[in-house]
């Protein structure tokens, strides 16, 4: 039952929206601080990105460096960064998914979204 004869309590709705916004901002800050890794070539190339997708580090094993074949090294770097970004996206879904569902899935009663 919605108090007030079917009208949602606007103050309560605003408080819920503000809390969700604060929770979302906190989760985004946490993502920006959290680092995840990705690798390619059996660990010859490792990339580290933040949960928000910012590349922070790239480690290349000397065994991966062949002056005659820089294309393979480039491919390994791209693959490692992509793997790290996939891991970052997975982390984003874990951290932000419940918050986004709350906003878009009827998490605030009385609002149309």
UniProtKB/TrEMBL annotation:
InterPro entries: YbaB-like_sf, YbaB/EbfC. One of its GO terms (cellular component) is cytosol. This is Nucleoid-associated protein FHS37_002217. Homodimer. Pfam families: YbaB_DNA_bd (PF02575). One of its GO terms (molecular function) is DNA binding. Its main location: cytoplasm. It is found in: Cytoplasm, Nucleoid. Belongs to the YbaB/EbfC family. Residues 10-37 form a coiled coil. Binds to DNA and alters its conformation. May be involved in regulation of gene expression, nucleoid organization and DNA protection. Keywords: Coiled coil, Cytoplasm, DNA-binding. It comes from the Bacteria. SUPFAM superfamilies: YbaB-like (SSF82607).
